[in-house]
Every structure is written in structure tokens, then in C-alpha cells.
Amino acid sequence: MSYTVIFKEEAGYDVFDSRNWYESRRIGLGDEFLDEIEEYVKVLEQNPQIFQVRKHNWRYCPLKRFPYLIVFEIEQQVVVVYAVFNT
């Protein structure tokens, strides 16, 4: 069973701002950040239930390399990403 992942506008800004910050630290690092986000989006498309429910029915997906969480909720067959924030 496959899910559709959508990013709320605010979450898109989070990713864009974080990518730019990393890119300003080292050329290519921002793209590496985006690559990791894309890797976890694929995980969310396949099996978002592996992340347990936290408060407000939200789930948190921690990135491995970068200190960020993807905050999302499952609504039927759609994974709604509300935020991508630095921990």
C-alpha cells in the first residue's frame, strides 16, 4: 500500500530555509540535506506507521544525518507534513 506525501506550505519553507542555511556553510551540503529529506519521503510513502503517534495525533520522523524531525499526520492514504524542524 502506497501513500501520497504532501507538504504544507510552512513545511516547504522549513525545508527551503534549512537547505539554504546548510548550503551557506558548505557548497553541496544543502543538496545533501535535500537528498536525505527525499530519502525519508520515500519511507513515508511506503510505511509511515513505523513512526509512533505522539501528541495531537502527530508522528515524528527523525533524520539520521541532520538534526531534524519531519512532523506529520496520516489522513487515510495521505501523509501530511506540517513541519521540518531543527532539534
Give a concise summary.
This protein is an alpha+beta fold and 87 residues long. The protein has helices at 9-25, 29-46; strands at residues 4-7, 59-62, 68-75, 78-86.
Detailed description of the structure:
The chain has 87 residues and is of the alpha+beta class. The protein has one domain (4-86): RelE-like (YaeB-like fold). The protein has helices at residues 9-25, 29-46, and strands spanning 4-7, 59-62, 68-75, 78-86. It has a four-stranded mixed β-sheet.
SSE topology sketch:
Blueprint: E1 4-7, H1 9-25, H2 29-46, E2 59-62, E3 68-75, E4 78-86
Parallel strand pairs: 1-4
Antiparallel strand pairs: 2-3, 3-4
Helix pairs in contact: 1-2
The overall average pLDDT, rounded, is 96
The total of beta strands comes to 4
Helix/sheet category: alpha+beta
Largest sheet: 4 strands, mixed
Order of helices and strands: EHHEEE
The end-to-end distance, rounded to whole angstroms, is: 31 Å
| Total count of helical runs of at least 4 residues | 2
The name of the CATH architecture is 2-Layer Sandwich
**C-alpha Rg, in Å?**
13 Å
What labels would you give this structure?
single chain, 87 residues, alpha+beta, YaeB-like fold, four-stranded mixed β-sheet, 2 helices, elongated
